[in-house]
Amino acid sequence: MLPHFSSLRPKTKGEALTYLSDLDRAKLLAGGTDLLVRMKRGESHDYLIDITAIEELSGAVLNGGRIRVGAGTTHRSLSLSPLVLESARSLAQAASWIGSPQIRTMGTIGGNLVNASPAADSIPPLLVHDALLTLESMDGERTERVEDFIIAPYTTTTTGREMLTALSLEPLPAYEEGYRRVAKRAAWAISRLGIAWSILEQEGTFADVRLAIGSCTPLPFRARKVERFLTGRKREIAVTREAVKICLDEIRRISGERPSFTYKLPVVRDLLQAILGGR
Amino acid sequence: MFVGKELVRVDARAKAVGSAAFAYDLKTEDALFACVFRSERHHGRIRNIDLGEALALEGVVRILSAKDIPGRNLFGSIRKDQPFLADGIVRFAGEPILVVVGKDEGIARRAITLIKVDYEDLTPVLSAADAAVSPVLVREKGNVLSYRTLRKGDIDRGFAEADVVVEHTFTTQWVDHAFMETEAGFAYPDGDGRINIRSSTQNVHYKRSEVAAMLGVPDGQIRVLQATTGGGFGGKLDVTVEGFLGLAVHHLKRPVMMRYTREESFLSNTKRHPLSIEYKMGARKDGTLTAVKANIIGDTGPYASYGETVCLRAAVHATGPYEVPHVSIDSRMFLTNNPISGAMRGFGIPQLAFAHESQLDEIASLLRIDPIDIRMRNALKKGSLTATSQKLSASAGLLETLKQVEPFWRQRQKQGKGAGFGLGCMYYGIGNTGVPNPANAHVELGDEGKVILHTGACEIGQGSDTVLLQILLDTLEIEPRDVVLDRGDTDTSLDAGSSSASRQTYISGKAVHEAGLRMREFLERQGYYRGKDLRDIYRFAKDEQPLRFDGYFDPPARAIDGETSQGAPYATYGFATHMAEIRVEEATGECRVRRVHASHDVGKAINPNLIRGQIQGGVAMGIGFALMEEFTPGKTSSFDTYYLPTSMDMPEIEVMLVEDPEPSGPYGAKGVGEPALIPQAASIVNALRDAVGVKVYELPCNVERLKILLEKKEKT
To answer: Fewer beta carbons under 10 A from the terminal one: N or C of chain B?
Structure first.
């Protein structure tokens, strides 16, 4: 059962920021698909500020050469956005796998990000697109890289008086791109593993490679060592095999050995090999 | 004629528009709410209970303990060994200790968090293997709840005659029923001082007798009515909320509501037995089975529930639906401090089917025989002797189910990497094992010439209301509008036994048919079949004689021998063949079931559409059992960590029916509720071997286990 709380539903960003600044024990509600579950288990707040009615927080548009995604954009609308499907396909795919239809209709990209679960499907694609986050408060605005924003499982740099308002993604329309997740059933399941990739191949050579892996290490991570190794090398089996090996070493270096790796590392190996390809 | 027709379920409209009243919908404004404080320890002695803070909470009305039980503080379907409320000792984490009654649900649940119990920990017994050797006794009489043996022929000779012998150990997991509606009930005192309990249940008369004994009052002081019930699968056979509700109303004389949270349901409800099955099977070169030897070991938790039933059923069905001349089975259930395992769809047979079907496929592959041919060669048929040496005289359509699947099997073509096909067969004794298990029913001609059907058979979603109605309609040659259904009320119906063991269509169906035949004789005399109106018959006859006609049926099954289990424990059996087509992604260990062909011998399909529904549900549950569902005590607490298949995991399902009539059943019908599930997991496991060459000996074969099996295969 939910504890008692007061609910506010601002129509503008300014109104929401004023509430955040003025009210103590207030929490932003951006869909509630994680927050309400936690509150049913005992977490309590005096005020919930529901930001889903703020129109300027919703939608994905091309802006100054980058994709600007409002933090209140739902998973469902991300998965259907022509712009996202064209220029950040892994994000559209990841969004289409989150939870159930009900959760995708309520849940938002901003909420998913601030919740910062190690298994969040949206994070690996954001890493691949070098997402920059805009955080606003009554005191001003700051920009942070998604990699710096999440500092530990379920922990971010945001303060209680701040609101994540927008994400800015680098569009990668010419890239091969996708998101693959593995779960215990076909749908409505927490990912056991998720890989986002974006690859630019030119004349048989890796011109640019971006890989991000979720649900494997304590925080989803960009496999930059693998990316550096691949860039400029031929897309052939000897190379991609070596890249897979580097990736597995990198995961072990980050996490040490974990019981789940008996399963996860062979899956990373096989999926990554299939993604990188090469003959 | 209505039998054999796809009559729309009588409850379809009410359930579709939301007007069907589940227990929670019956709650009145003034109802109190009760919830249960449960043991936090596996095994311990209660030293002290501190209720101070909880009682001080405003709105807490009463906290009841074992001391407040005026009658017998024990219940159990098979043997009375489980306390309603712990009396000094707790034997599993989740065992009820106190009932807290509050003004509303929030208060009652908050009060629970304020109760402090001081335990003296006792060493827990946490596995069957441990129970076998531990000096710690879970119960005073020792740690073996039940030990059953089956001996047929000469087992040594059987293996001596075999050209090939395979032997493996199979293990299965705890499974939760995961019904959509958790345990719930609403109870209230009536003007006569009686206690009325309306609950989500699979039986009403049994619950009434348990509550009456607990309160030390005659059965007549208690009335149990079935509320609309959101699923049972065996998990609502044992007393759940009914005892606590009866106790609360007894003391408070006020209406009381209870419903479990999902977490509470996972914690407290009985589970499917985890079994370890050492299984040895021998065959001649031509595939003819010569011997089966099995050693079955189960963990049943600290209380009997249906542990003995599963122990015995597993033993008598251990060979699968095949003629095996030499059989030796040992089946044991150990008491532990794990959750109680009890009745769940199939009573141990889905676990055994996993073992015997895997073994049969391995023999087939060693002998280079097609899996369908080895099944046809050994299939039970009319005239066959089962493992208990029961001669099947009728309604034994296994071969026909195999023949229905055969064209799809022979034409199968693997499409793509990781594709595979598997077969699973089963037989299942309908009704309880070697004991009387009768059902009553009666019909009445009432006001305005309505025929009232009184049955104690609980509708738990399986469709018994509709099936019983169809049987009555044909027996009397009347129309649906002529009938009023009065179901699941201990005041107005006689005991029909539980909705379990796939028994209601067969047993209650026959009782309804018998009652209908008696009414038919009466209507015949009154001229109904010569055109007289039911209303006129009622007006004319109501003062002359009671217009009530009783029906009763007890299947002709007999007790089996205590040592050899030889005999005829069931009057009839269901038979089925499932064929599964799967696709495995080797990179990830994901397995999707793409298509299922399911053929069932149901005797007579009273309502083919309802049977299709049962089979689709059985396939879903079988996919869960094979590939994902697993309850881990202390870890699994909700659907967060307990994976049930969703619609996205469901295959296309082709249902085919065989109607080899059962002479003792109504219009030739028998049962299908559990058969629908039993062969499904087995067929998936066999398809895994076909698809990627892995041998599965442990369920569930979830993504992780499957990937690890694939890795091991790579290495060897």
So the answer is: C
